């Protein structure tokens, strides 16, 4: 009986050690691929998407073109993010990876944000970027680096991070993320652009601001 209890405890200990590794990123697929389908007519529902019948899959389901083209930058923050994820490259479904191209205007930035489901690795193709991320409470330690063409930087999953163009011309970067649909939470938009709006009194106390400033910020981010 004692030996059985010991074996059971050993199994539990092993599970405790391996479980964090198993849930660290998107679940591993149970087949070669699971190309996303818009309906269940010819598919099976898996991981948030319908899987297309493998017999109907073509090479185009794994193909996306056009990332070599510069994107117009019209946003107030001075950047445009072009995502390649499971929503526009259906073959990514269940594969646990996605990609973005980021175009930065002069003095533009990809403002502080976080990806709740992915680590990000970024490479600069053109220009000079100041990048960084902040660790969780209580330390809130800032790690920053100036990146030039060909330089690479990693942003750990879930941590707030940013990029800013500090060069004299436009900049371009590409980033891979460890999820087919990493999600993005832009801090300013989320806090001041919530719908319905967060009570200004709550935000005024959290940010130590005059409530009138909070209301003004909420008006700026109102959708």
UniProtKB/TrEMBL annotation:
The molecular function terms of the Gene Ontology recorded here are: manganese ion binding
Q: What is its main location?
A: secreted
Positions contributing to Mn(2+) binding: 113, 115, 120, 161
Q: What are the alphabetically sorted keywords of the record?
A: Apoplast, Disulfide bond, Glycoprotein, Manganese, Metal-binding, Secreted, Signal
**Which positions does UniProt annotate for oxalate binding?**
110, 115, 120
User: Which residues belong to any copy of the Cupin type-1 domain?
Assistant: 65-215
Question: Signal peptide span per the entry?
Answer: 1-24
List, alphabetically, the InterPro entries matched: Cupin_1, Germin, Germin_Mn-BS
Q: Name one GO cellular component term.
A: apoplast
* SMART domains assigned: Cupin_1
Q: What does this protein do?
A: May play a role in plant defense. Probably has no oxalate oxidase activity even if the active site is conserved.
For this chain, the annotated S-S bridges are 34-51
Q: Is Manganese included in the keywords of this UniProt record?
A: yes
Query: What family does the Swiss-Prot or TrEMBL record give for this protein?
Result: Belongs to the germin family.
Which chain positions lie within coiled-coil regions? none
The family database entries (CDD domains) matched by this protein are listed as: cupin_OxOx
- Where in or outside the cell? Secreted, Extracellular space, Apoplast
The identity of this protein, by name, is Cupin 1
The yes or no answer to whether the keyword Disulfide bond is present is yes
């Amino acid at each position: 009986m004692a030996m059985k209890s010991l074996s059971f405890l050993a199994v539990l200990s092993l599970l405790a050690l391996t479980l964090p590794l198993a849930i660290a990123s998107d679940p591993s697929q149970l087949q070669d691929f699971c190309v996303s389908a818009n309906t269940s007519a010819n598919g099976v529902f898996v991981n948030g998407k319908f899987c297309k019948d493998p017999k109907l899959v073509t090479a185009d389901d794994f193909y996306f073109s056009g990332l070599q083209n510069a994107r117009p930058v019209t946003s107030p923050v001075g950047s445009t993010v072009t995502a390649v994820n499971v929503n526009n490259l259906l073959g990514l479904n269940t594969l646990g990876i996605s990609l973005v191209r980021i175009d930065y205007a002069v003095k533009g930035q990809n403002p502080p944000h976080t990806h709740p489901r992915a680590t990000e690795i970024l490479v600069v193709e053109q220009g000079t970027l100041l990048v960084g991320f902040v660790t969780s409470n209580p330390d809130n330690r800032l790690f920053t680096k100036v990146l030039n063409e060909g330089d690479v930087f990693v942003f750990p999953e879930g941590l707030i991070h940013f990029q800013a163009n500090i060069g004299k011309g436009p900049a371009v970067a590409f980033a891979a993320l460890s999820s087919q649909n990493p999600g993005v939470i832009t801090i300013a938009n989320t806090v001041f652009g919530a719908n319905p709006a967060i009570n200004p009194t709550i935000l005024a106390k959290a940010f130590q601001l005059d409530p009138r400033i909070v209301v003004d910020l909420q008006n700026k981010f109102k959708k």
